[in-house]
């Protein structure tokens, strides 16, 4: 396959198209997986968390995404993450330490509903669709026996205006009409039954 290219002398020549050219993303992203299989109750949180793959182009993302398990195929207790490269999906990570997370429950479409929320969120993140894109750390899909959840992690929990902007856009990108809530990681460390600081 070739495309036409015009030169100053009016002559039209064919130039081969580079079919192997990849389209870089603005920044690299990493998939993480927390496998509950064989996890001991006494094991510290995060000890089973594993980095799966880092991608930095559109083509690498789709190649990887199409060959990974979707959240709906994972066992109960599993967490699937997609975070900016260099940020670990842990409260202790410096980029997450003062942050928090928006959480949406999967209230529609059964397990496949979670897949749609997951894909729409990832595409919005890696496509830099959020106005406050620097605020985003990553997303976590949590598969649970009672109710699956998806959470969008952000950097500066105390900046309410920014968090509300992120939350509104996230709901729009997911086409999600139910309520979402935002908790501070700092609150969650102290109280397992932490209350939302912001809701939309």
UniProtKB/TrEMBL annotation:
GO cellular component terms given for this protein: eukaryotic translation initiation factor 4F complex
Keyword set, alphabetical order: Disulfide bond, Initiation factor, Protein biosynthesis, RNA-binding, Translation regulation
GO molecular function, a single term: translation initiation factor activity
InterPro entries: TIF_eIF4e-like, TIF_eIF_4E, TIF_eIF_4E_CS
UniProt entry tagged with the keyword GTP-binding: no
Coiled coil: none
GO biological process: regulation of translation
Pfam families for this protein: IF4E
RNA-binding as UniProt keyword: yes
Homology family: Belongs to the eukaryotic initiation factor 4E family.
Identification of the protein by name: eIF-4F 25 kDa subunit
Species per Swiss-Prot/TrEMBL record: Araucaria cunninghamii
Lineage: Eukaryota, Viridiplantae, Streptophyta, Embryophyta, Tracheophyta
């Amino acid at each position: 396959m070739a495309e036409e290219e015009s030169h100053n002398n009016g002559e039209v020549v064919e130039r081969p198209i580079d079919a192997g050219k990849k389209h870089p993303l603005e920044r690299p992203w990493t998939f993480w997986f927390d496998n509950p299989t064989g996890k001991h109750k006494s094991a510290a949180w995060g000890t089973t968390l594993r980095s799966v793959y880092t991608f930095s182009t559109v083509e690498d993302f789709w190649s990887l995404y199409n060959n990974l398990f979707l959240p709906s195929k994972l066992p109960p207790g599993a967490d699937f993450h997609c975070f900016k490269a260099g940020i670990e999906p842990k409260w202790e990570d410096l980029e997450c330490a003062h942050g928090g997370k928006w959480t949406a429950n999967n209230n529609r479409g059964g397990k496949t509903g979670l897949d749609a929320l997951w894909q729409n969120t990832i595409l919005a993140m890696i496509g830099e669709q959020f106005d406050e894109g620097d605020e985003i750390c990553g997303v976590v899909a949590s598969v649970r026996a009672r109710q699956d959840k998806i959470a969008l992690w952000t950097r500066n929990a105390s900046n309410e205006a920014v968090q509300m902007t992120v939350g509104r856009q996230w709901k729009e990108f997911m086409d999600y009409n139910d309520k979402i809530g935002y908790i501070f990681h700092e609150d969650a460390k102290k109280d397992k039954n932490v209350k939302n600081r912001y809701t939309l």
